[in-house]
Amino acid sequence: MYEKRLRDSLPRVEERIEKARERAGNGNQVRIVAVTKGHPIAAVRAAVAAGLRDCGENRVAELDDKVGELGRDAATWHLIGHLQRNKVRQAVPLFDVIHSIDSLRLARELSSEAQRAGVTVQGLVQVNASGEETKSGIDIARDVGPGLEAIAAICELPGLHITGVMTMAPFDAEESVLRGTFARTRALFEQARSVKNFDAREVSMGMSNDFEIAIEEGSTMVRLGTILFGERVQ
Fold first, then answer.
1. Chain centre to alpha carbon of residue 136
2. Which of these, 209, 153, 152, lies nearest to 13 by C-alpha position?
3. Do residues 75 and 56 touch, judged by C-beta distance below 8 A?
4. 109 within a domain of the structure (yes/no)
5. Tens digit of pLDDT for each residue in 164-186?
6. How would DSSP label each residue in 13-46?
7. CATH code (residue 112)
8. Whole-model pTM above 0.90?
9. Quick check: is 82 in a domain?
10. Residue 74, domain member (yes or no)
11. φ, ψ for residue 189 (rounded to 5)?
């Protein structure tokens, strides 16, 4: 089921990504994170077989189950959902990249666990560029200053390797709102290049409903689930 779905969907998605890259004209490479959250193990297997090694999971428990069944090296595991501080110890051994470092408090918890475990946590600083109260992340809707301050503080913490920023746009917003959200996030990323220890590589923004606009505004990593796999099972 998932193999057939990807044979149909992936080439179309890749073509749309390439056209969006051409329109952007910035030379950015764009990586697909296949959002396998809510889908069974078969979806991860199909994604990897199709060449999509980056798989995104939302919940620590689901990530734990999939890593336990498939193995830690079966994919590059991305934790894309909110991480509660009391789940940090369980989560750190499971993922390769965390997209949702949404506060200094969480960053400090991750730093502490990284040092305890003798590992380096690779992550992105999550920002709220739309001003929605329901969105997590450092608020940069009116001013990127708080985002720059947060990135600088987080990058000072031992055991963390911060490689970029992440945002989520409003789901059903007008194009102008989407572009503004993504453009503010990209502007923050560019200004943060001068921050000590900030390894400016990734701008994670864009999902199934808005990834082309996100790419046009400078995304380097899109998180795609429904458009690849169909509606989630759970």
1. 13
2. 209
3. no
4. yes
5. 999 999 988 899 999 999 999 99
6. HHHHHHHHHHHH-S----EEEEE-TTS-HHHHHH
7. 3.20.20.10
8. yes
9. yes
10. yes
11. -55, -45
